[in-house]
Write a structure and sequence with these properties.
Strands 2-1-3-4-6-5 form a 6-stranded parallel sheet. It has 547 residues and is an alpha/beta fold. Helix content is 39%, strand content 16%. Helix 15 packs across helix 16.
């Protein structure tokens, strides 16, 4: 069998449904083999967007998404997406082409060492040097990408190797069971929790990957222990519960941090240290139990006293089975913090001003998006408002990147979600800066006939950096730009385009878009003038005013 055919058969064996990317001449054998495959090629307009889509596919399914590019500039365009997947623990395989390696008559034209470039950005990167090795390389790439901690892998398929022939058979997946935590670790953790006076539960990104929501929900219901989440841990437990204390959206000084300071034990489930620290360990002010698939790297702000290592869902089940709720536990302070936070979150949600107030924007979108609806956030100041103010009701219904925190991923991530879940309502929420970094993918979304709402928040500037600039006392300089007419821009791609002129127009417009098929782009002017006052000053003053 031809090597490129073997490669495609190996991908089919792995259950691959889509390959996202842009082929080049070095991929033509592979592309021809793909023509008669069950795998669908999703042709994008930029390799970076293809990588973001593949990574999001991995995030939502737990199965490695696949992205494809040619050599040289096509491959280097995948670098940001590789870092996005690697830091965000999203399983992804990248396949790139290369000039012939056995004999070449083109010198160094377009040739860069892609395998070497990918070394610090992936868990596994190899050049395929013979057709016989393809089945093993493909199987290993998927195994490594999907194994804890998930991440990016890369295979380079040179043009001449793709046209070789081999009779090497495909390697089938082997079944395995994830290791479970050892009993002594469970027993030690149970003793620590029962002995604590004010235990607090943290839910991180790792708990969102394997859908441990049922076990964690049972744990919280049995123990009554309040919980909070990191940004990438949102929605593992329905955040409408009265035991939810909030999301660690700010680095410090939020109401939530008062609760953390009052705790004497934090049960840290699935926290990934690539996220901004949701708390800082200083001295012995509280103890930490680390519940995760792998042990924690120790640094000056995180050094857990007890680790429970193994399948997270099983670990939580074991803890639930053995733990006995204690009458000595006192959660009154935590619940008072929650009350103060809830009061503050209601401020501004009915503000009629236009351009739109961020608190009103978040509240209105939460009002109209169904419980299983998905919002995909690009990176900008609005991400903090949504992480803090938007309650997630189900796992992986808030797709945000708090690891690499790259701009440009919001639209491709939403497109991948819509492709995977065509019956769900999906909304991409992008700043005007982030949207323009991959706005060309509107054509891809229209071509794929996706049902998608894209909300562009316009302040004609890089608003996140403006917020930081103001907080640091610097002059307003160097961050403003102009924008196209987004309504006409959307229409030029075959999408629907809208621009609201008043805040009360947003909810009915989104409802109309939800009831109509196709890609809908809504331009919303946003008022960020209170960012510094509220996020840096008011919250700090209010949270410190009660004890």
């Amino acid at each position: 069998m031809k090597a490129s055919d073997i490669f495609v058969k190996a991908l089919e064996e792995e259950g691959v449904k889509y390959i996202f990317g842009i082929p080049g001449e070095e991929n033509l054998d592979f592309l021809n083999s793909l023509k008669d495959s069950s795998i669908k090629l999703i042709l994008t307009r930029h390799e970076q967007a293809a990588g973001f889509m593949a990574a999001t596919y991995g995030r939502l399914t737990g199965k490695a998404g696949v992205a494809m590019a040619t050599l040289g500039p096509g491959a280097t365009n995948l670098v940001t997406a590789a870092a996005y997947a690697q830091l965000g623990a999203m399983p992804m395989l990248m396949i790139t082409g290369q000039k012939p390696i056995l004999s070449s008559k083109q010198g160094r034209f377009q040739i860069v060492d892609v395998v070497d470039i990918m070394h610090p950005l992936t868990k596994y990167t190899r050049q395929i040097q013979g057709a016989d090795s393809i089945p093993a390389h493909v199987r290993e790439s998927f195994r490594v990408a999907e194994d804890e901690r998930p991440g990016a892998t890369h295979l380079e398929l040179p043009e001449d190797i793709a046209s070789e022939h081999s009779d090497m058979p495909i390697i089938h997946k082997s079944s395995f069971r994830r290791p479970i935590a050892e009993y002594k670790a469970i027993s030690a953790a149970v003793n620590m929790i029962e002995a604590a006076a004010r235990p607090l539960l943290l839910i991180g990104a790792g708990a969102n990957r394997k859908l441990t929501c049922r076990m964690l929900q049972s744990f919280v219901e049995k123990t009554g222990i309040p919980f909070f989440s990191t940004q990438m841990g949102k929605g593992v437990i329905d955040e409408r519960t009265p035991l939810f204390l909030g999301t660690a959206a700010l680095s410090d000084h939020d109401f939530l941090h008062r609760a953390i300071e009052h705790a004497d034990l934090i049960i840290n489930v699935g926290h990934d240290v690539v996220e901004k620290p949701p708390f800082f360990m200083e001295g012995d002010r509280f103890k930490v139990i680390h519940v995760n698939y792998v042990t924690a790297p120790i640094d000056p702000v995180y050094y857990p006293q007890q680790s429970v290592i193994g399948d997270i869902a099983n670990s939580i089940w074991q803890l639930s089975e053995h733990i006995k709720p204690q009458q000595s536990w006192d959660f009154s302070y935590f619940l008072s913090v929650r009350q103060k936070l809830e009061e503050h979150l209601k401020k501004g949600i009915d503000d009629p001003r236009f351009p739109m107030y961020p608190q009103r924007l978040v509240a209105d979108i939460r009002k109209v998006v169904p419980a299983d609806g998905i919002i995909a956030l690009d990176n900008g100041i609005y991400k903090i408002w949504f992480a803090r103010n938007y309650k997630a009701y189900q796992p992986n219904t808030v797709l945000l990147d708090n690891a690499l925190a790259t701009m440009g991923a919001g639209l491709p991530s939403a497109m991948a979600a819509s492709l995977i879940y065509p019956d769900k309502k999906v909304v991409a929420i992008c700043g005007d800066g982030g949207f323009m970094m991959n706005s060309q993918e509107l054509e891809t979304a229209v071509r794929l006939k996706l049902n998608l709402v894209v909300i562009i928040l316009c302040d004609n500037a890089y608003g996140m950096i403006k917020w930081k600039q103001a907080h640091m006392g610097f002059a307003d300089f160097g961050l403003d730009y102009g924008n196209p007419d987004f309504v006409e821009y959307a229409k030029s791609y075959g999408a629907y385009g809208y621009r609201i002129a008043a805040s009360d127009e947003l909810v009915p417009l989104i409802e109309t878009c939800f009831s109509t098929s196709g890609v809908h782009v809504i331009e919303v002017a946003v008022d960020y003038s209170d960012n510094d006052r509220i996020l840096n000053q008011e919250i700090k003053a209010l949270s410190q005013s009660f004890s």
